[in-house]
Amino acid sequence: MERKYKQYFETNKETWNKKVNIHAKSEFYDVASFLEGTTSLNAYELEELGDVKGKSLLHLQCHFGQDTLSWSRLGAKCTGIDLSGEGIKEAIKLNNELGLDTTFIESNLYDVPEKVVGEFDIVFTSYGVVGWLPDLKTWGEIIASKLKKGGVFYMIEFHPIVWMFDFLQTPPKLTYPYLNSGVIYEEYKGTYTNSDADILSKEYGWNHGLGEVITSLTNAGLQIEFLHEFEKSPYNSFPEMDATDDGMFVLKNEQRMIPLLYSIRATKK
């Protein structure tokens, strides 16, 4: 990856290393229940990806591995990668406590071709991932290179319209352009699991529209099976969300008119 991004990645890595310990102890991730058997996966990805038993699965940007381990519990042979060394340490710890055989590798997304060996039946990524990546063209190429012929790529992600808002303001203010090629810097106290945590989050990110995401995948040789958009999120991850009867969350007032999530399933030709 180009030298110009090095500072951004180093800053993000430092922030995520600080977040891991806070997240692992949070109600949001509820590690105690997870260790007792609760899955960290949501209905969207479970239904849309389907049966993974006996399949090899590469999880990109896995944080501290709960989703990776949840797929392992469902019978997949999983490898998870993440930028954060602290996240990978926590993932390995959980894997050992659960007696699973999941592999975890500390790696920047763009270093996957050098650090991850082989091809996989499934490449998976979810919830707050592409916004950390400056170059989706290379992202798509890496995904394709790590899939076996006929393999499946599945992602579920926060909708790019959501990232047009500044959620550090109340109510959220429409601040950022949908088509934004420049880097966005944010600095704030706390983290999404604990807003009062004693941590200063410093983060560099990039907005990517649906057209850019789709084109990056198709140009890399993947065939799109579907693009779905959802108004509800399984996570109460934005300020002042409303709970719905089915256990999901929606934004308040006029923000409710925008989609919160999208999912893509694609296959390697």
From TrEMBL:
Gene3D superfamilies: Vaccinia Virus protein VP39 (3.40.50.150). It comes from Lutibacter agarilyticus. The keyword rRNA-binding does not apply. This is Methyltransferase domain-containing protein. It holds the Pfam family Methyltransf_11. Residues 59-154 form the Methyltransferase type domain. InterPro entries: Methyltransf_11, SAM-dependent_MTases_sf. It comes from the Bacteria. One of its GO terms (molecular function) is S-adenosylmethionine-dependent methyltransferase activity.
